[in-house]
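[Solved] Which block belongs to which protein?

Original post:
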Amino acid sequence: MKVSVIIPVYNSEGSVAETLRSVLAQTYKDFEIIIVDDGCTDKSIEICQDLDDARIKIVHQRNRGLAGARNTGIRHAQGEYLAFIDSDDLWLPEKLAKHVEHLERSPAVGVSFSRSILIDEQSQPLGIYQMPKLTDITPEYLFCRNPISNGSSVVIRRDVLKEIQSEENLYGEVEDFYFDDRFRQSEDIECWLRIALQTNWKIEGIAEALTLYRVNMGGLSANILKQYESWEQILVKTQVYNPEFIKNWGNRARAYQLRYLARRAVRQRSPELAVSLLHKALKTHWRILLEEPRRTLISCGAAYLLWILPPSVYKWLETLMMQITGITQKRRIHNEQVKSADLLTVERQLL
């Protein structure tokens, strides 16, 4: 078995069938699917059981959260590579094939990720992409920007997870842990950061946008504040095993996280919170204006315009900017794909 696909499921009856079908539609076929029933109380698991495929295995447990469900999936996985997808996200058919090719071609790469297309709650593309840096990802860059972007974009070598594995008794018996079950939010970046700091594996992305990442345009301001509190716990944990890293990069990473959360507040139409978070970000590390002036100024502009403009005018302006951004991103992805294909052709000719 080459790949194990792990799908944590908790009360996702409205989306899980579409997610599972997108995995079953992969052009690469040598994989198993481990669905982790994380204490569902709706019909999610019944829906999964209706999709008859010998590659599907369902594991049941009491609710442990996303990190705990992923850990359970890892313990049951047989594959050399482990792929994760949340039960409301989707994959394009060639995703696994592209990641397996990437990892086979690049033995030093331990974590392979893709860019993502943003979709709405009806699975319609928003016309924009997550466009992170793909190579030369240092621990400090990962901590500040999190280029992996979302947990449904990664495929990881089993050997990488073995290197960060720990044994603990959290639920009445000793088990292996990879993600930290104590985190109910920010569990992804905490895990990626441990990989970057504690192993020699490279983290690298591929140019294609192969993940469809569902964006929740609603939500509560309290959820943003809870996410920030959870993220702050990463600093506390990391400081224990690498205090020098936090001393050097903690405030800078904090500023970037606050800026990211301000953009989320804009999406949720919470202008006061967005402006407050941006002010805090600039106070924490004002140099984000110099390090990433375009993104920082766009974030500030969006927050203040949301605050002062009538909702209808802001909506029109936002739609226009998203269309312009989407066209630019799509052109960039195409150009990078062509460049990557040309480089791969040259490598094969040399071999």
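(Second protein starts here: sequence line, then its structure tokens.)
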Amino acid sequence: MKLASLVAAGAAALAVGAAAHAAYPDHPIHVIVPFPPGGSTDVVTRIVVAKAQELLGQNIIVENRGGAGSIIGSDYVAKAVPDGYTLLVGQTAFAVNASLREKLPYDTVKDFTPIALMADHPGVFLAQYTKPYNTFKEFIAYTKANPGKVVYSSAGTGSWPHLAMAMLAKDAGLQMVHVPYQGTGPAKADLIAGRVDVKIEAYATSMGMVKDGKLKVLAVTSAQRDPILPDVPTIAELGYPGYETSYWIGLLGPAKMPPDVTAKLEKVFLQAVNDPEVKQKLDAQTIHPHPLPAKDLEALIHKEIDKWAAVIKDSNIDKQ
């Protein structure tokens, strides 16, 4: 009799556990943006999350945990319970840090579960409007004729704009001076003022200055021309066919998430990114919806880690 009672109790417990698991999500989900509010990562997240929570029928809270080039927020998620209620917005810096940082508090590959790619946006090669080059080819010619004279800015050592320019310098055989700043704002301010000459940056954060005539776009960094700037050539088509980079934004969770939870989140976030209203809002920010499933995000992360590791090594960028 006792054995029968234990079996019945065990079966009941399993049924309750299965029902609870099937109810996911039964309370709010936290999505961690590892940067301060206002940047493109934050903007994309809030646009997509607004639709995803409608589809899930559950609140999704966007929480900004910036610091240490996205490491603080990433570490928070890596160490969270892998139940699908704490997620991370990963981006280019997430892959860069695997090689840039001497020691990370997590393993970039082993400690996370890729869920879906949401968006990306290419960089634009910007020059201050008074500089003596109006095309990318003129810039290359000027820089080669004046080695060490051209100065470029970035949001900091190891930031995507820095590494994108370092990759170009290697591919084109250019000698330039890098000036790292504490953030995009001051780096762009000195570019506009002419204290530095050029910069690679997302068009989403420089569009206003270009339209006002304070900066000029000489090229885009994507593999194909951007539909927003159809008349602007790619760096690849201007003589550097291996050159390509964009700032990607995807969703991850901690390692060992339940496969059914991961699959549900993947489906919902891909559906959200594909929503016409979401696409319209992202396009208005000059950011491209790029919905790809978990396996493709995982492949992208591996590819990006290898790419930036080579750039960091070949450019003799000190690890931090």
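Accepted answer:
You had them paired correctly. Confirming on the second one: Residues 6-20 have pLDDT under 50 and may be disordered.
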